[in-house]
Structures are given as C-alpha cells and as structure tokens.
Amino acid sequence: MSARFTAHETPLQGLSVIRRKTMLDDRGFLSRLFCEEDLAAFGWQGRIAQLNETGTLHKGTVRGMHFQRPPHAEIKLVTCTRGRVLDVAVDIRAHSPTFLQHFSVELSEDNDCSLLIPKGFAHGFQALTDNVRMIYAHSESYAAASEGGLNPQDPALRIDWPLPVANLSPRDAAHPLLSPDYRGVAA
What predicted TM-score, i.e. pTM, was given to this entire model? Predict the structure, then answer.
C-alpha cells in the first residue's frame, strides 16, 4: 500500500476513488497528484501520454460523456484543483456485469480525491461551483478517429445531475441517445 495514496474501490470493477496524502507545514502544503509507481497498484498502466487542464466558468455546466475506442482506449486520472464537481464514469465495457451502470463522486479542491478511470468507461462531470479547474492525466494521446461519446442527458444512463444541465457543447449535445442494440466497447 502506498503511503502517498489510498484507493477506495467502487461497485464498478477497476474504477477507484484515489485519496492523496497532503503534507502540511507552516508554509502551506504539498500534494502529489501522480506517481506511476504508486498508482500502478491501483490500476494505472504505462505512461502519461497527455496532461490536460480544463477551466469551467459556470456552475451547472456539464462536460462529457467522453471516451476513446481501442486501439486508443485510455486510462484517466481526474482531479479537481479549484471548485467542486460531480464526476461521473459510465461502464461501457462490452460483456461487463455492470454494463451501462455509472458511479459518481464529488471531487473538489478540498477533499484530496481523484477518480482513476480504467479503459472502457465514458467520463464527464458537472460543475457544482463557478470557476472550476480540472486536471486530467491520460495514458494515451488524443486520437480523433477513436473519439466517442454518450449523451449526458440520455435517460438510459440514469445520471441524476444535481443541478439543471447547462452549457453543453454542441458536440456533447449531439451525441445520440443509446439504441437498444448498443453493445459498448472492447476494454
């Protein structure tokens, strides 16, 4: 077990809430956001291929539900560094016993938690405050040809967004609702 991180398993296999140990002193704090060696024990495999930061101006904004198909399927480590979000991951792994089930957790600048999302999950969040900042570590680089998404308002997903959904991008709003024959992605 890592001294810098602890993992809390969720009902969805491979999806973990990661709690960081923050070191405090009279100058402030240090919080390690990523350590390949430590996070490997919780499911991180390989390198960080891409590190992204997003800023979301307005509370209620929903971003997602995004994923990449194989061969560019990715693991993500998602962290909120300003404000608060409801972070959501949906299991879209073909043949998974929890197929199309989701898990949500509040991430904030105050709770020292991240969500470690394995391959085969769609991801999105809703800003619960104005001026949210998020950092994403990706195990694979973005590949437009492998990009996919689910409509965050799809009733089949049963996501209970705590605020009215606002500011969906045209791309996210255009994702079709799931058809009864949707089979997911290979993990």
Answer: 0.92
pLDDT per residue as tens digits for the range 87-120: 999 999 999 999 999 999 999 999 999 999 999 9
Looking at the 3D structure of the chain, how many domains does it have?
A: 1
Q: Is residue 180 part of a domain?
A: no
Q: Please report, for the domain that includes residue 144, its CATH number.
A: 2.60.120.10
35: pLDDT strictly greater than 60 = yes
For residue 43, being part of any structural domain is answered with: yes
Active site residue 123: no
142 a catalytic residue:
no
d(CA 102, CA 79): 18
Instruction: Tell me the pLDDT tens digit for each residue of 71-89.
Output: 999 999 999 999 999 999 9
Query: What's the CA gap between 11 and 118, in Å, rounded?
Result: 13
Of 102, 136, 138, 175, the catalytic one is: 136
Residue pair 84/108 in contact (Cβ under 8 Å)? The answer is yes
The identity of residue 166, as a single letter, is A
> Which position among 66, 102, 123, 138 bears the catalytic label?
66
- 170 backbone dihedrals φ, ψ, rounded to 5°: -55, -35
Q: Tokens 């959904």 belong to which residue?
A: 165
